[in-house]
Design goal:
The complex is a heterodimer.
Chain A (H helix, E strand, L loop, with lengths): L21 H20 L4 H28 L7 H28 L16 H26 L3 H31 L9 H32 L9 H33 L1
Helix pairs in contact in A: 1-2, 3-6, 3-7, 4-5, 4-7, 5-6, 6-7
Chain B lengths: L8 H4 L4 H29 L11 H37 L7 H23 L14 H4 L4 H28 L12 H32 L13 H12 L1 H22 L6 H14 L15 H13 L1 H15 L8 H24 L1 H7 L3 H31 L5 H18 L1 H8 L14 H31 L51
Classes of the chains: A mainly alpha, B mainly alpha.
C-alpha cells in the first residue's frame, strides 16, 4: 500500500450528501413527459395527455428547485459546476451542430432555397431585428449582474438580473407573436416545405433553450431573495451566465442561417 | 462522520456512487438476460428454415429490434459507463465520491425510465419492429409506435449526457494529490474517452430521433422524400453517434483489458503512454467513420472514400493496443485466473472481429456484403460477444472489491470455456452466408443454408449457457461466497488498497499518490501483501 500512496493529510471528510429525494422526483417528472406525449398522440387520449404533461412539468420544476435549494442550503461551494457547464455546453454545441448540419444538408441539396412555395413575408427579418437586439443586450445586462454580485452589490445584482429576465421574456413574447403571425397570416407551417420544417424546429429548439435560461434566472432570483446566493456563493449565477451567453451565440447562428441567408437568396 | 443510511430508502434516495453503481449493474444484467432470451428465441426460429418454429415474422422483427437495443443501449453502455465508471472512477482516482452525487442518481433513474419504455416497446401494442436503427421511411409510415423508440433514446440520452458531464468533471477536478494524468488507470482513460464521445455524439442522436418524432406525429418533412426531405439525412445523423457508440463500449473495455493483463502478468503495461494516446486517437477518429454505414445508400462518392480511410485508419491505434497487450504478456508471470482468461478470450475474439472489420470497411468488398449476415457475424465478434465476455471478466475481476466476497473460481473457468467455444463458432457460418449475399434480419433463409444455420444455432445455445452459468456464479457468490481479502490479486492499483467492500467514505483521508498503478517488479512491490 505504501508504494502507491502516503497516509494522507488529516482533513475533515465530507461526503457531500447521503440521501436526497430530488433526483428521483426529477426523474419521475422527466419520465412522465414522454408518457404524456404518447397518451395524446399514440393512444388518442389528448385531454389526459395534456393533464399529464402539466403534472410532469410541475413535478420537474418542483424537483429541480428542491434540488437547487438543497445544494444551496450547505455552507461550502466547491465551484465544480463551472467546469460541468462548459462540458454540458459542448454537448449543446453538438445538438445544434446536428440540427444545423441537417439544415445545411437540406439547403445545399435543394435546388432553390427557400423552396418556391414559401410565402412572400418569410423569413420575417424585420421581426428578427428587435429579437436580436433583446438577446444581445441581455448578454451585457447579465454580465453586469454577475459583476455586481462579485462586488457584493445585491441590490444592483437583482436589478440587472431582473432587467435580463425581462429582455429574455420580451424575446419569447416576440417569438410567440412571430409564430402566430406566420401560421395564421402567412399560412406558413411545418408542413409547407423543408424550409418550414427546419424553421420551426430550429427556432423552437432555440426558444426552448431561452426558456430554460429564463427558468435558471428565476431560480437565481428566488435563491437571492432567500440570501442563498451572494458574494461567496456565485457558482449558480456564473453557470446561468455562461449558459445564457451560449444561447445568445446560437441565436446569431439562427439569425444568419435561418433568416438572413434565405432572405438574401429569395431576393435574388 | 455521519452514519451510513440503511434500509429501502437508502437505495431509493441514495447518492452514493457505489450504491448507484451496483444498481446500474443489476439493471443492466437484467437487460442482458432479456437480450440473451431474445437471441435464444431468434436462433430457435432458425432451426427450421422452411416453416414457423415458435414466432412469426412480425414478432421476429420485434425480437431483433429489442435484442439490438437492449444489448447495446441497455446492457453494454450502462454496465461500463454506469456500473464500472460509478464504482471504480472515485476509487481509482482517490475521491470520496463523484463531482455531483445527485446528478449521478438522476442519471440512474432516467436510465430506469428509458428501460421501462423499452420494455413497453416489446410488449404493448404498436410493438417496435423497426430495427434498433429506426430508419425512416419505415419508422414513419410503418405500424410501430416510433414514440417508444424516440423517448427511450431521449431519456437514455439525458442520462448519458448527465453522466458524461459528471464524470468528465470528476476526472478533471477530483483526482487525489499526486494522481497525475500519467498515473491514471487505463480503465479511467478509456472511460474518459468514452464520455467525450457521449458528450459529442448523444445530442446528435437525440436530435435525429426528435426529427423522426416530428415527421411521424407533426407532419414535418425532414426525412420524407415525397415532401422534399431525405431519409439519408437520418442515416447520417444516426450513425454520427451510433458508430462511435461502438467505441463508447470499446474504449473502457480496452482499459479494463490492460488493467487485468497487467495485474495477472505482474508486469507494467507495455507502452502506457501509447495506450493512452491510442484511446484519445480512437475518440477523435471514431467520428470519421460513420459513412461506412451508408456505402450503398447513395451518398456523395468522395465521402465514401474519405470515410473508408477513416475506417481503415482506426485499425492502427486498435492494433497498437493489441500488440501492447501481447508485449505486456511477454515474459510476464502469468496467472490464469477467471478474469485473465476472459481478457485473453476477448483478445482472440476481438482480433477475428477486428480483421473482418478492416475487410468490411473496404468500399469494394462492402458493396457485396453490405447489410448481410457477414456484417452480423463481424460485429458479434468485434463488439457483441467479445465485449460482453470482457464485461463478465471485469465483473469477475472487481467482484471481490464490490461485493466483499470471492466468486467460485472453478465454475468461473468452466463457464468461460463454454462461452468461448460457443462464441468462436456461433457466428462463423454467417460469414459464409453473408459472402453469398444473404441479407440480415430475414425471418427465413434459403433452405440450402439449413445445415450451416443448425451449427450456428447449436453453438449460440452453448454461448448462452456459458453466459447464464457466469450469471449464476455472480448471484450465488454474492450471497454465499467466501469473504474476500482487501487485495486478493496483490494489485498495485489504488482501488485495491482499501478494504473490500470499500467503506462508506472510500478513503479515511484523501491519499497522496506517489506512483502509477502498474509499477510491478520494483523493490517496493514486496511491501504489497494480501491481508
Amino acid at each position: 500500500m505504501e508504494n502507491v500512496m502516503h497516509g494522507g493529510k488529516s482533513e475533515v471528510h465530507h461526503h457531500e450528501v447521503e440521501l436526497s429525494v430530488w433526483p428521483l422526483i426529477t426523474a419521475v417528472g422527466a419520465f412522465l413527459l414522454p408518457i404524456s406525449f404518447m397518451t395524446s398522440f399514440s393512444w388518442g387520449l389528448s385531454s389526459v395527455g395534456i393533464i399529464l404533461a402539466g403534472v410532469a412539468v410541475v413535478i420537474l420544476i418542483v424537483g429541480l428547485f428542491g434540488w437547487l435549494n438543497e445544494v444551496h442550503a450547505k455552507k461550502e461551494d466547491a465551484g465544480l459546476s463551472k467546469i460541468a457547464i462548459l462540458v454540458f455546453i459542448a454537448s449543446e454545441v453538438a445538438l445544434f451542430g446536428g440540427l444545423f448540419a441537417g439544415y445545411l444538408y437540406a439547403m445545399l441539396f435543394t435546388g432553390t432555397w427557400p423552396p418556391a412555395n414559401t410565402p412572400e413575408g418569410v423569413p420575417p427579418v424585420m421581426l428578427a431585428i428587435p429579437m436580436t437586439i433583446f438577446l444581445l443586450s441581455s448578454s451585457f445586462t447579465i454580465h453586469t449582474a454577475e459583476d455586481k454580485l462579485a462586488h457584493g452589490d445585491m441590490g444592483g445584482f437583482k436589478g440587472w438580473l431582473t432587467f435580463t429576465t425581462i429582455l429574455g421574456a420580451l424575446f419569447i413574447a416576440f417569438m410567440v407573436y412571430e409564430w402566430h403571425h406566420l401560421i395564421a397570416v402567412e399560412n406558413f407551417t411545418v408542413r409547407t416545405n423543408e424550409y418550414g420544417t427546419f424553421f420551426y424546429t430550429i427556432t423552437g429548439f432555440h426558444g426552448s433553450h431561452v426558456i430554460v435560461g429564463l427558468v435558471m434566472q428565476i431560480f437565481c432570483m428566488i435563491l437571492a431573495a432567500g440570501a442563498k446566493i451572494g458574494k461567496n456563493r456565485q457558482t449558480l449565477m456564473k453557470v446561468t451566465g455562461l449558459y445564457w451567453h451560449f444561447v445568445d451565440l446560437v441565436w446569431l447562428l439562427v439569425v444568419s442561417l435561418i433568416y438572413v441567408v434565405p432572405f438574401l437568396k429569395a431576393g435574388q | 462522520m455521519s452514519t451510513q443510511p440503511a434500509g429501502f430508502k437508502s437505495w431509493l434516495f441514495t447518492t452514493d456512487h457505489k450504491k448507484i453503481g451496483v444498481m446500474y449493474l443489476v439493471t443492466s444484467l437484467v437487460f442482458f438476460v432479456v437480450g440473451l432470451l431474445l437471441a435464444l428465441i431468434m436462433r430457435t426460429e432458425q432451426l427450421d428454415l422452411t416453416k414457423k418454429v415458435i414466432i412469426d415474422a412480425d414478432l421476429f422483427n420485434t425480437a431483433f429490434t429489442i435484442h439490438g437495443a437492449a444489448m447495446v443501449l441497455f446492457w453494454m453502455i450502462p454496465v461500463l459507463l454506469g456500473f464500472l465508471a460509478n464504482y471504480m472512477i472515485p476509487l481509482m482516482i482517490g475521491a470520496h465520491d463523484v463531482a455531483f452525487p445527485r446528478l449521478n442518481a438522476l442519471s440512474f433513474w432516467l436510465y430506469v425510465g428509458a428501460g421501462l419504455i423499452a420494455v413497453c416497446a416489446l410488449i404493448l401494442p404498436g410493438r417496435l419492429d423497426t430495427g434498433w436503427t429506426g430508419y425512416p421511411p419505415y419508422s414513419i409510415v410503418g405500424p410501430a409506435n416510433t414514440a417508444f423508440y424516440v423517448f427511450a433514446v431521449h431519456l437514455l440520452g439525458a442520462s448519458s449526457i448527465a453522466g458524461a458531464v459528471n464524470f468528465i468533471t470528476t476526472i478533471i477536478t477530483l483526482r487525489a494529490p499526486g494522481m497525475t494524468w500519467g498515473r491514471l488507470n487505463l480503465t479511467v482513460w478509456g472511460l474518459f474517452g468514452a464520455f467525450i464521445i457521449q458528450i459529442v455524439g448523444v445530442p446528435v442522436l437525440a436530435a435525429a430521433v426528435t426529427l423522426l418524432l416530428f415527421d411521424k406525429y407533426l407532419g414535418t418533412s425532414f426525412y420524407d422524400g415525397t415532401k422534399g426531405g431525405s431519409p439519408i439525412l437520418y442515416e447520417h445523423l444516426f450513425w454520427f453517434y451510433a458508430h462511435p457508440a461502438v467505441y463508447v463500449v470499446a474504449l473502457p473495455v480496452f482499459g479494463v483489458v490492460s488493467d487485468i493483463i497487467s495485474t495477472f502478468s505482474r508486469k507494467k503495461v507495455y507502452g502506457y503512454t501509447s495506450m493512452a494516446i491510442a484511446i484519445m486517437i480512437i475518440t477523435v477518429v471514431g467520428f470519421e467513420t460513420w459513412v461506412h454505414h451508408l456505402y450503398v445508400a447513395g451518398t456523395l462518392n468522395w465521402t465514401r472514400v474519405v470515410f473508408m480511410w477513416g475506417t481503415i485508419a482506426i485499425g492502427v491505434p486498435t492494433g497498437i493496443k493489441t500488440f501492447n497487450w501481447l508485449a505486456t504478456l511477454h515474459k510476464g508471470s502469468i496467472e490464469l485466473t477467471t478474469p485473465m482468461l476472459h481478457a485473453l478470450g476477448f483478445i482472440s475474439l476481438f482480433t477475428i472481429g477486428g480483421v473482418t472489420g478492416i475487410a468490411n470497411g473496404l468500399l469494394g468488398f462492402d458493396i457485396q456484403v453490405h447489410d448481410t449476415h457477414w456484417v452480423v457475424a463481424h460485429f458479434h465478434y468485434v463488439l457483441a460477444i467479445s465485449m460482453s465476455m470482457l464485461c463478465m471478466g471485469a465483473i469477475y475481476y472487481w467482484f471481490p472489491k464490490f461485493t466483499g466476497k470471492m466468486y467460485n473460481e472453478s465454475l468461473g473457468k468452466t463457464a468461460f470455456w463454454i462461452t468461448l467455444i460457443g462464441a468462436m463458432i456461433a457466428f462463423l457460418p454467417q460469414f459464409h452466408l453473408g459472402y453469398d449475399g444473404i441479407p440480415r434480419r430475414y425471418w427465413k433463409l434459403p433452405a440450402k443454408y439449413g445445415p450451416e444455420m443448425k451449427v450456428a444455432v447449436i453453438f449460440s445455445y452453448i454461448t448462452i449457457v456459458g453466459f447464464l452459468m457466469t450469471l449464476y456464479n455472480f448471484v450465488h457468490s454474492a450471497i454465499k461466497g467466501k469473504k474476500a481479502p482487501a487485495n486478493p490479486w496483490n494489485s498495485l492499483s489504488l482501488e485495491w488498497q482499501i478494504p473490500s467492500p470499500p467503506p462508506f467514505y472510500n478513503f479515511e483521508n484523501i491519499p497522496t499518490i506517489t506512483d502509477g498503478p502498474y509499477e510491478y517488479g520494483k523493490p517496493a512491490d514486496n511491501t504489497v501483501k494480501a491481508h
